[in-house]
Amino acid sequence: MKMSALTLNKIENNADLLLEKDLWLASDVGLQADATHGAYYLSFSNITVDWLNKAAKKFVRLQATTRSYSTCRGYIRGFNHLNDYIQTLNTFITPNNVNRAFIVGFIQYLAQRDLNPMTRGITLMNIRTFHQVALQEEWLNFQDKPFIFNNDLPRDTTITPKFISKDVLIQLKRHLHCLSDWMQRFILVLLETGRRVSEVSFLKFDCLEQDSDGDWLLRVHEKKLKRERLIPISPACLEAIKAQQIDLKNSGHISPLLFPSRRQSKSPTISAPHINRALNKLAQEKNIVDANGIIWKFSSHQFRHTVGTQMINAGVPQVMVQKYLGHESPEMTARYAHIHDNTMKAAFVDYQDRLIDIQGQMNSSNDHLDARWLKQNILTQALPNGLCALPLTQQKCPHANACLTCTHFRTSKKHLEQHKSQLEETNKIIAQANQNGWKRAEEINQEVAISLTTIINTLENNP
């Protein structure tokens, strides 16, 4: 019991000492540093307002128990912005002075700085969370009422991910052999799986597993969600990983990682800047350009955006893309939903083809035209070989089944069944239009029905 008390006292003393420091190691609060990006510290040195500095440290220390290192760094960036704003004021600010008017000024201050909407939005959300936690923990005598609301957040808080175009990918693959063997494999794993660069950097040497069907899976550790997962991989990815394993074995390089650091440094892993520098050097040397002839600026995270975009455009359900990429929320996955023009065109052609197929196979069904988008946006008229698709926004078409009302139109009993079939289709459309209140569509098709009825009666009554 005495030992437990001593241990507890030591922990409390260490915690107090930590709050006196302005520079923390990530490990001081149980976080894993972001070695992939060369980041190891949490710095509070730019927060010079005393009460904000102390409360910010308490907040980050508490949040570190459930949040990632990168998230905690984001909190500190928000505090830096708030501290800078306070320094611009000509009055002494205490926690009790932080009210709605103060926050409105802070929002205006952020808007005047060269910050993108995403950064401003995240900053405001983080300060709002800080306000709530500080009240809950009784760290500061803030006013006990909300002062940041959802409509304060910039409307455009989502940055459209930048994916690598098909042309640029072709150029990259053409020159990929110019890079070292291990880097070729590293980039191929990024491109084939869409994993975060930190996840590929920390792949274990024995990261491959085979399921009961004999298919190969890749075991990845998702740092953001603090979990391990198995994901399916392509044959090309499998080949690259196995080649890397063989290469490490043959070189006698003993490492628990599949891609260990290639140089002497504090980081045991490959860093994102290292990959980016190599890719951009290759782009310069081999003139890898976009559609406008501009040298492409590579970022390792673009491969993730590219895989997400390709999956969406290939028709993979968004929930499956979310699962594969390891997104916590569907909103994250929705950012990848760039529908390319050729994808949209192919989807529309496929839609039209399927509609024609359904018409051919289900003529006896009363709701075979029950396609909501079509019925609500297209002025549907039955034709002998399909439908008229004049948009509803147009005026009445002067050519609507013009042959049926033209004095030069000629027909015979040979076409009787075709006329009957067209009348049947027209009557179904009239019924649908009447049921849904589409007056104009009903009127136009009634004119067609009258003409068809006259033609059919005439043909049947005249031998």
From TrEMBL:
Domain Tyr recombinase positions: 159-350
GO MF: DNA binding
Keywords, alphabetical: DNA integration, DNA recombination, DNA-binding
PROSITE patterns xref list: TYR_RECOMBINASE
InterPro entries, per database record: DNA_brk_join_enz (IPR011010), Integrase-like_cat_sf (IPR013762), Integrase_catalytic (IPR002104), Integrase_recombinase_N (IPR010998), SAM-like_dom (IPR025269), Tyrosine_recombinase_XerCD (IPR050090)
UniProt keyword annotation of Chaperone present: no
GO biological process: DNA integration; DNA recombination
Keyword DNA-binding on entry: yes
Pfam families (UniProt xref): Phage_int_SAM_5 (PF13102), Phage_integrase (PF00589)
Source domain of life: Bacteria
PANTHER family associated with the record: PHAGE INTEGRASE-RELATED
UniProt-recorded name of the protein: Site-specific recombinase XerD
